[in-house]
Structures are given as structure tokens and as C-alpha cells.
Amino acid sequence: MHQLTKAESAALARLFSAAEDETPVGHRISRFLLAWWNPAVHGCFDFADATMVSAERRADMVLVFGAALRLGDGPGSFGQRAAFRQLSHTWLGGTPSDIPLFDTANETTADSPVDETPHARTVV
Predict the structure, then answer these.
(1) Considering the domain boundaries, does residue 45 fall inside one?
(2) What's the rounded Cα separation, in Å, for the pair 75 and 55?
(3) How is 28-56 classified by DSSP, letter by letter?
């Protein structure tokens, strides 16, 4: 498991907290995190969405993005799999154990089945 700095770890915790809010901002932040965790299921992140969150959360996104690049590994390597599953459950439904794992730090391979069904949650 890779180590985040204290600042990166705190930023990731704040993003998870904000992403749990069922608001447009929470939805944007959850899309950022979930696109990083599993783009095959959750799609890509539109960086224009980052301009629609507070400056503080944008700074957190930059720290987390920088950590991902610096460490060169998927988010599962940071010990946050349970948090990503819970976030996926919050926005997609189902049970957290039903949510497929797919990142560079786990056992899923190109030969493993991946749920490619488009998932969306309407936020008003």
C-alpha cells in the first residue's frame, strides 16, 4: 500500500465527506472520485465540473490528483476500497459488496467480467 502525505490523506477524507452529500456539488465530487476508481463503470470526469465546486474542494481535488500521479497507482492502493464501495453504493444503489472492484491495485484483470451497464443518478 502506498502512503499519502498527511495533507493528501486529509484532502481525500474531505472529498469523501463532501461526495456523500446528495447535492449537485456532492455529485460532481463523487464523479471525480468514482471516475478515478473505476472509469469502466463510472465513466470519465469532466474537468469543467471542477470549476463548479468551492475553491477549497478544488484544491483537495488537485492534491488527490497529484498524489495519484506521484504514486502512479489506483485508488485501491491507498487503503480506501471500502470508502469507494460505499460512495458507489450511495450514488448507484445496491449493496457495497455488489459494486465491482476495478483498479490497478486489485485482482481484476482484462479477462475479468466488468459491469459496463451505464449507471446514472439524477440530481436536481
Answers:
(1) yes
(2) 23
(3) HHHHHHHHHH-HHHH----GGGGGGS-HH
How many structural domains does the chain have?
1
Task: Enter the C-alpha cell of residue 123.
Answer: 440530481
- 97 exposure class (CB count in 10 Å sphere: 0-12, 13-18, 19+): exposed
Q: Give the residue carrying C-alpha cell 500500500.
A: 1
Kindly report, residue by residue over 12-60, the tens digit of the pLDDT.
999 999 999 889 999 999 999 988 888 777 788 888 999 999 999 999 9
Q: What is the 3-state secondary structure of 61-113?
A: HHHHHHHHHHHCCCHHHHCCHHHHHHHHHHHHCCCHHHCCCCCCCCCCCCCCC
| Farthest-apart Cα atoms in the chain, separation | 40
Domain that holds residue 45: 6-98
**DSSP label of 20:** T
75 inside domain: yes
State the pTM of this model.
0.71
What are residue 11's phi and psi, to 5 degrees?
A: -65, -45
Other Cβ atoms within 10 Å of 112 Cβ, number: 11
